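Margin note: ligand = D-malate.
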Amino acid sequence: MVFHFKNVPIHFETFGKGPAIFLLHGFLESSTMWKPLIPELSKNNHVITIDFPGHGKSGVIAETHSMELMAEVVNEVLQKLGISKATFIGHSMGGYVALAFAEPFPEKVERLILLNSTPMADSEERKENRDRALKVIDQNPQAYISMAIGNLFAESSREKFAAAIENLKKEAYSFPMEGIKAAIRGMRDRKDRTEILKNFNKGKYMILAEEDPILPILETEKIAERCGCSLKIIEGGHMSLIENLNSVTEYLHFIG
Ligand code: MLT
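Resulting structure:
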């Protein structure tokens, strides 16, 4: 399905009936990442997936796709579907957006599940990396995408998941470069939402991976504890849905 947000097409899909579960993908991904979870989740739930602006089949809205802007798009989808509250599962950048949504709309969030994600803002070093990435994209976009996607996986699993990595790259090569840059700027400039997560007083869960090259496990684990999240640490890298699907699905059984 498609609707227009500020005259730009935004794609979303829905599956099944029941309590709503909104699935928010990460950077350089799209709604297709959730395919392995949908048959099970949609048995008893109304599952919604979206392509964030500049990702998948959705267009580019602005020079910077802030987490707040993406959360506005999410809210628009909920309104279109007449849904008053949902459980949110956000992968990495999708988790940043889920928190940017929970800040103004806590009443619309039933449960918050952050998969390979964090409420923290970028460190200074990470902000510098984002600026470097913006320059590399201008020089060689394909090389940037290839490197960035490879780097999401644990070193130990890159060979095993070579085919999945190639598929992800193939899809991301089709995304508009301005959209990729807009998301990088949005992530770089995002604010810390540790307090938002700490104060969120319904079910909150974090799934972290031992060898995540993006999120330092020890630091993120402490944040999860400080925010009062139920925490599950599993094997693998940043792409748990690919690298460790079984552990993720096992853990998500509480969703019903
Ligand atoms: C993602 O997987 O969404 C991004 O790698 C997150 C990030 O770069 O902070």
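The domain at 2-255 is CATH 3.40.50.1820 (Rossmann fold).
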